[in-house]
Amino acid sequence: MIFLKAFIVGGLICTVGQILIDKTKLTPARILVTFVVLGVFLQLLRVYEPLVNFAGAGATVPLTGFGYNLCKGAAKAVSEQGFLGIFTGGFTSSAGGIAAALIFGFLVSVIFRSKPKK
Length: 118
Fold this sequence. Notes:
Layout: H1 2-23, H2 28-44, H3 48-55, H4 57-60, H5 63-81, H6 85-111
Helix pairs in contact: 2-5, 5-6
């Protein structure tokens, strides 16, 4: 059942992104930034964490989950370190995911060669 919840919630989030790409003139970069900011905003309203508890990876893997993670890390760091935590908490909480993306991106670029479009 947990896989079905993750699939449905993650699919709905990605469907919203696809609709924004197809039906608006927003660039993909602006849509991605909107999703991250939306994740932060929903976490500030205490709406996103219950969604994460319900859907698991279906809510944490899309970009809204990245925003949620940044906000949650910053809030934790502020409670532990004070004002400086605003700047360090988001990086600390998301460092593992960012490092994995960089490492796997590099490995894929080494293994596969890009080809120009014809």
